Amino acid sequence: MSDTGTSPQSTDLPDEAGRTPGFLWDDLCVQAGRIAAEEPCLRSLLKEVILDQPCLGSALGVRLARKLARQDMPCDELIPLLGGLLRDHPELVDSAVADLEAIRERDPACTSALEPLLYYKGFLAITTYRVSHHLWNNGRRSMALYFQSLASEVFGVDIHPASRIGSGILLDHATSFVVGETAIIEDNVSILHEVTLGGTGNEVGARHPIVRSGVLIGAGAKILGRVEIGQGAKIGAGSVVLEDVPAHTTVAGVPAEVVGASKGENPALVMDQSLEVDDSLESSGL
């Protein structure tokens, strides 16, 4: 995992689609052209965001600028700032491609990568985080915090720019998703709305959760303190997690307790939010 916000531990989960930014960009342009012909009222949006842009980095910059522009920083200032950062740092675009593919693969309501790019606030919020994290790591902390506040205001998603988040992330619905300063989320994680990765008080240092690859976190779950959610674990909706969760287990409740073994290696990819457990639970001693 790279300096774009990921943990130092690599993941064994490849990008299933294996797409490059250029390949995906060609698809986006074709889809945008078709929709512009079918929906004249969307033609201006599609032209500015997709059809008039040379690459995905520029398109991401324009889309974010249109969403985040305010009187204190209008669109004509944000477009060159965001577009320049995204074009000059291809690792940010690579992460965005992985996120778009994760949404397309895991969300049955999503029929193309163009939909999250234009409409899904979870994708737009995490892309804003990626920009703010880059700024934070390069000494521009005031600007990083400015983008954090904009994402919280516009998308209802509050991710501290110092937190470390991998790629291939699905924020499904995303409303009220909160991530603390020292949290780590590895690659290929799926998270529903109203999830908090928070602390337990006013302690300092490493005080927020670590979420390993392949984890699925259900809606409304609260994970508090420097706990570790093991690879391929599943957190039931509405749970409050205060202790480490072993890899490939399912926890639920307040406080959360182990209720079974996660079905499959990577619940994040399967997106099965049920709490059914397999027969290996008793034999494993969980």
Termini Cα gap: 31 Å
Q: What is the radius of gyration?
A: 19 Å
CATH topology type of the largest domain:
serine acetyltransferase, domain 1
Average pLDDT figure: 90
CATH domain class name of the largest domain: Mainly Alpha
Helix content: 40-55%
Q: What form results from the Cα inertia axes?
A: globular
Beta-strand share of residues: 5-15%
Number of helices: 10
What structural class do helix, strand and pairing data support? Answer: alpha/beta
How would a crystallographer describe the biggest sheet?
6 strands, mixed
Write the layout of secondary structure elements.
Layout: H1 21-38, H2 43-51, H3 56-68, H4 75-88, H5 90-106, H6 114-119, H7 121-137, H8 141-155, E1 157-159, E2 164-165, E3 170-171, E4 177-179, E5 184-185, E6 190-191, E7 196-198, E8 210-211, E9 216-217, E10 222-224, E11 228-229, E12 234-235, E13 240-241, E14 249-252, E15 257-261, H9 267-270, H10 280-284
Parallel strand pairs: 1-4, 2-5, 3-6, 4-7, 5-8, 6-9, 7-10, 8-11, 9-12, 10-13, 12-14
Antiparallel strand pairs: 14-15
Helix pairs in contact: 1-2, 3-4, 5-7, 7-8
